[in-house]
From TrEMBL:
Protein name, UniProt field: Aldehyde dehydrogenase family protein
Pfam families recorded: Aldedh
Domain annotation Aldehyde dehydrogenase: ranges: 56-495
MF term (GO), any: oxidoreductase activity, acting on the aldehyde or oxo group of donors, NAD or NADP as acceptor
Organism: Streptomyces xanthii
Alphabetical list of InterPro entries matching this protein: Ald_DH/histidinol_DH, Ald_DH_C, Ald_DH_N, Aldehyde_DH_dom
Keywords: Oxidoreductase
Lineage of the species this protein comes from: Bacteria, Bacillati, Actinomycetota, Actinomycetes, Kitasatosporales
Amino acid sequence: MATTTLSTPAAPTTLKAGTSWDDAWRRCLAVAPEAFRDDRVLNLWQGGWQPDGLPLPATSPVDGRPVAGPPRLDAEAAHRAVRASLDQHRAWRHVPLPERRARVAATLDALAEHRELLALLLVWEIGKPWRLAMADVDRAVDGVRWYVDGIDTMLDGRTPLPGPVSNIASWNYPMSVLVHALLVQALAGNAVIAKTPTDGGVACLTLACALAAREGIPVTLVSGSGGQLSEALVRAPEIGCVSFVGGRDTGAAVATAVADLGKRHILEQEGLNTWGIWNHTDWAGLTAAIPKLFDYGKQRCTAYPRFVVQREAFDAFLDAYLPAVRTLRVGHPLAVADPSDPYPDLDFGPLINAAKAKELTDQVGEAIDRGAVPLHRASADPGRFLDGQDTSAYVHPVTLLGPPPSSPLHHAEPFGPVDTIVLVDTEAELLAAMNASNGALVATLSTDDPATFARLAPQIRAFKVGHGKARSRGDRDELFGGFGASWRGAFVGGELLVRAVTEGPAGERPPGNFPEYHLMP
């Protein structure tokens, strides 16, 4: 009988044609010369692009080459930028809704026109594979179009906030989270301020904001350290709302500040999202789901890094899990054998930087030293990298059984391709393990019995709980928030995003997680 062998792509030797960092930078200079200089990006405030701030050196996680770094403002300049944004806000809030809608729609058309350049910048700046970079851009554009089409009813009886919305977001989703939020906030009648993440996405955000500013959107874009800018971007009296996406330590400081000031806020923080297995037999479905859970190396707020597994089903779980995790493809997002080849089909590329890769690798090593059992440790495939390239930001999939309580991997989100597994014998243990981080954004419980799911799911402290399927942040009319320490302030998604950045009837209590109350939609 003849045998069939699967063909493997030829080893990469070069970049796909037209995708080098220099190519991307030249295109930025041509598309938005007002925002890009020969060797740096500019800050946008007081209605113009300002050559202020000292640019920090930056490198691409893809191969360690230099890329544009954030031009960091000092505290005084940040306060001036906030005051100027308030002036924009006072004018913009009186612009009729049809004109606001038209300007936002024109911005979306411009973003769509340059979607491939925006995606290429995401590849170089934060290491997203091409497929996921394009999805980030497209989700931003398509998501805001949904609001453009339905904003009239969402704003019925509502007015803009007294001051601009200040946005401080992490680096992992510059378009589908940050730019999406900026444009919806502006559509609702607010001027908007964004701080560029220190770790990446500066050029992508600069280009997106340049396209928005051309259409008259009142956007301010500034860079700087949290210590220098937080007084202006969080505590300044001009700010009408603070929208934050990031880790719990920084988020806690922001939460304290906004609570003291009584300021409107939306604070999305990390949590350990868990996937529970209890009286479950659909192993084929689990095998199909595993690779998707590793998209972008689990550098997502809705990633699932923890499996809580019924002990008596552990062997069946491994039979379903291990073959799937061994199929994951990791490599250089732009490396091909021939310049005309299509983009590599990858699950993920590098982590955000070499320092994060080392930190995570060290945590894995320490966990094993303290008793965790390595069930799977993938090695690099040389056929997915360029010869001699810097690979210091790459971490390959790891799966650990029983992370020790002393390890950060036991209780915190790793934000990288590391899965941990905890075995349990009772439902009480299952729930305790799934609630290990005092709140999460999403969770999933795989169980064959709908009644068991209906009984256990309400006891899982996550905003969204899936029955055998992964949950995500969602788009359009899907709501989003978090339980416990994973969220502070107003919930968002759908019409709740508009309600969070506008004022309604006197005494209105927006759905959210606040110090004085927790209100579900």
